[in-house]
Amino acid sequence: MTHATTVTDRASYVLAANPGIMTLDGTNTWILREPGAGRSVVVDPGPGDEAHLQSVLRVAEPVGLILFTHRHFDHTEALGRFTELTGASARSIDPEFTHDAEPLVGGETIAVDGLEIEVIATPGHTTDSVCFRLVGDDSLLSGDTILGRGTTVIAHPDGVLGPYLDSLAHIRELIEEGLVARILPGHGPVIDDPAAVVDFYLEHRAERLDQVRAAVDAGATTPREVVEKVYRDVDKALWGAAELSVAAQLDHLGPHSSRFGV
Fold first, then answer.
1. pLDDT tier for residue 255 given thresholds of 50, 70 and 90
2. Looking at the 3D structure of the chain, how many domains does it have?
3. What is the pLDDT of residue 237?
4. Element of type H or E holding 171
5. Residues 168 and 226 grouped into a single domain
6. Cα within 13 Å of Cα(58), Cβ side
């Protein structure tokens, strides 16, 4: 039986049994509840695994609302089944993953039985990516915008690098303002030093962009050739995703991209 891991007075998670190269240990399904309150909010119920959903229900019932950080399958597959099990409405930036409610809007605050959640639009990993700031304990649910281990993939065309860098800068501002003390990611462990991790993400992206520029200047003529030069340190099983990431970087760089049809 899968058990929930408690992180704060308001947040716990159940880890889905879908580990992999892209999902790390699996999808973290977050269960949020104000201390002493009845209903919970479930974020990213995850894959359509009945055992996982029943484990979430044991902790989360009664569920007042379901939220999605973004559209990817490992976060949203359970939408139909979990709304059936709970009777709860579901909300996402993307209307396709919104059920019996209005789509999310960046900047709004959601309140469920005393629990306050600020919706922060963070496009980049996908165009519909959002983070949720848990107001009562200054935690940020980051979905795949920031992972608990490693860095996230920005896969062209749904992943867009310019907005992603802006989203990271916005999160960095929230940290500097004292509004985010920890990050609760969609995959991997909790981040207790968010400033250092966001700085690493920003530095990593700048370094990769420099490497892509250099690869193009050295004669690379396809995204694959860029990957072979720039991502030699990356497991080849990830090179397909890396090609999509390179396409996003070339699109961001502008003039270089014309050579690749991106």
1. low
2. 2
3. 83
4. helix 161-176
5. no
6. 13
**Percent of the chain at pLDDT exceeding 70:** 96
Which of 174, 192, 210 is a domain's end point?
192
Q: Say yes or no: 171 and 95 in one domain.
A: yes
Closest-CA residue to 65 (of 39, 30, 102): 39
In this structure, the answer to whether residues 201 and 181 fall within a common structural domain is: no
Beta-bridged to residue 41, according to DSSP, are 32, 65
Question: In this predicted model, what pLDDT tens digit does every residue of 136-188 receive, in sequence order?
Answer: 999 999 999 999 999 998 988 899 999 999 999 999 999 999 999 999 999 99
Tokens of 133: 């700031």
Reported as a pLDDT band with limits 50, 70 and 90, residue 258 is very low
pLDDT score of 262: 46
Domain span including residue 128: 5-192
Maximum distance among all alpha carbons in the chain?
Answer: 62
Q: Can you read off the two tokens belonging to residue 36?
A: 């002493």
- 83 backbone dihedrals φ, ψ, rounded to 5°: -70, -35
What is the model's pLDDT at position 110? Answer: 98
Task: Tell me the pTM.
Answer: 0.93
Calculated CA dihedral for residues 239, 240, 245, 251, nearest 10 degrees? 120
Q: Supply 33's token pair.
A: 């509840």
- Of 132, 157, 192, the last residue of a domain is 192
Between CA 185 and CA 191 the distance in angstroms is 8
Q: Are residues 200 and 174 in the same domain?
A: no
Cα dihedral across residues 93, 98, 104, 110: positive or negative: negative
* CATH number for position 11: 3.60.15.10
Residues 31 and 81 reside in one and the same domain: yes
